[in-house]
Amino acid sequence: MTTGDRTSYAQGFADLDEEVAVGTLPVTGAFPPWLSGTLLRTGPAKFDLGRQTVDHWFDGLAMLHRFGFEDGRVSYRNRFLRSQTYCQSQAIGALAHGGFATDPCRTLFQRIAAVFHPTFTDNGNVSIEVFGGDVVALTETTLPVRFDAETLQVLGHRAYGAQVGGQISIAHPHHDARRGCRFSYVVAFGRKSRYRLFAIPDDGGPERVVAELPVDRPSYMHSFAMTEHYLVLTEFPLVVDPLRLLLASEPFIRNYRWAPERGLRFHVFEKDGGRLVTSLQTAPVFAFHHVNAFEDGETLVVDFIAYPDAQIIDQLYLAPLRAGAAVDATGKLRRYVLPLQASGDVALTRISEAAIELPRIDYDLCAGRRYRYVWGAGQRRTGDFLDSIVKIEVTSGETQDWWQEHCYPGEPVFVPVPGRKAEGDGVLLSIVLDAARSVSFLLVLDAQSLKEIARAECPHQIPFGLHGSYLSARN
Ligand SMILES: [Fe+2]
């Protein structure tokens, strides 16, 4: 493919075929000596499959990237996630299983057969989590792929939502350290569809259902909210008739319809016992990512990155991205305050007008609790794609950013300094594409000041990824 302008963000949507292992990357500045662990990231990295090019960014075949940190040195390795979808797609030169917005390559007979024997994708290009000691790459099905965090070799699948029953899940479970489990949810499609919230014990025990809610038109929800005592499903009005999905005449997300008349609905469940505490409705918006949520007296505060509608999904089709079209449907940090009592309306606060996506917080300290900082990829300068790293102070809306010409950062992962005194004491790790030089580097910023501490240059340019996790070697 050609991407025209050599400084365009479109460079980040070129295939990367090379797999390497580098013992020590060249470093500018000094990596913190306390940074001892591994940054694992995943993202779509192969779009041109031979006979077929996938239609949407989210359907590229997953590649894993591993940055190892020890005594100020940085190692790097990358490897395609050899999922079933990857192996079969490579063999046939086309997408083997239906993706997010790309049809698999199949004949009419296979299309009919797929209705009766649905084969879900296991192309774990969305995020990386640790389930009961297993490191997994996730997409939005119930087929996470286990892999070795050192070699990036695939070890098999891990159960996720299948034990409780459901077909579509999310790549953004929440971790509850006090209860020793992760919470997530699945949609069980059927004559009577259901949202099913469930818990995955950290000790490897069986999944258990926390709560269920019948639903006629299930919503596309990429994440959900958690406080100390509650789980909140934020039901965006991008909804599907389950029958359409069953007949599967179109790729997954294209069966969903924007139905603003439904409004935005919040369903609040108790973590312990699963009681539905309240369901509330307000004006429609769309979001992929919740930022955080917490309890404040008789209310719940739920923060997420909101869009006026679901147009952002259309802007992320591969062809316009490779042409460098402006992605101008930008997300903004919004706060919804939900009354827990029967009376009262949902209140909306526009925390900041800064464009932000791929949000991260000081999760270990602040998940489900009152917090001050969110970091994310911002869109402050060029207006065409995520081009900066932004920090928003959520009580004041005050914003800072890091930016460098022709550079396009991905999700900034917060890593706390050992024994930190305050929220946000630590660093951010972000893979940045330098489009002018056609190379990526791993950037380390001070999370408080957003001042650069160091960078390590990668041996190639890395296609834009989605999410990742930092595994500390100190635990
Ligand atoms: Fe996500």
Q: Layout of SSEs?
A:
Blueprint: E1 21-22, E2 27-29, E3 37-46, E4 61-70, E5 73-80, H1 84-92, H2 108-116, E6 127-131, E7 134-138, E8 145-147, E9 154-157, E10 174-176, E11 181-188, E12 193-201, E13 208-215, E14 225-226, E15 230-235, E16 238-240, H3 242-247, E17 256-258, E18 264-270, E19 276-282, E20 286-296, E21 299-307, H4 311-315, H5 318-322, E22 332-339, E23 347-360, H6 363-366, E24 373-378, E25 388-393, E26 399-403, E27 407-409, E28 413-416, E29 426-434, E30 439-446, E31 452-457, E32 468-472
Antiparallel strand pairs: 1-5, 2-31, 3-4, 3-32, 4-5, 6-7, 7-8, 8-9, 10-11, 11-12, 12-13, 14-15, 15-18, 16-17, 18-19, 20-21, 21-22, 22-23, 23-24, 24-25, 25-26, 27-29, 28-29, 29-30, 30-31
Fe (ii) ion is lined by residues 126, 171-172, 222, 288-289, 466-467.
Describe the structure.
By secondary structure, this protein is mainly β. The chain is about 10% helix and about 40% strand. The protein has helices at about 85-90, 110-115, 240-245, 310-315, 320, 365; strands at about 20, 25-30, 35-45, 60-70, 75-80, 125-130, 135-140, 145, 155, 175, 180-190, 195-200, 210-215, 225, 230-235, 240, 255-260, 265-270, 275-280, 285-295, 300-305, 330-340, 345-360, 375-380, 390-395, 400-405, 405-410, 415, 425-435, 440-445, 450-455, 470. The protein has a 7-stranded antiparallel β-sheet with strand order 20-21-22-23-24-25-26, with no helix packed on it. Strands 2, 27, 28, 29, 30 and 31 form a 6-stranded antiparallel β-sheet that branches. Strands 1-5-4-3-32 form a 5-stranded antiparallel β-sheet, with no helix packed on it. Strand 7 (about 135-140) and strand 8 form a beta hairpin. It starts with 20 loop residues before the first strand and ends with a strand. The model has no long low-confidence stretch (mean pLDDT about 95). Fe (ii) ion binds next to strand 20. The site of fe (ii) ion has 8 residues, from strand 20.
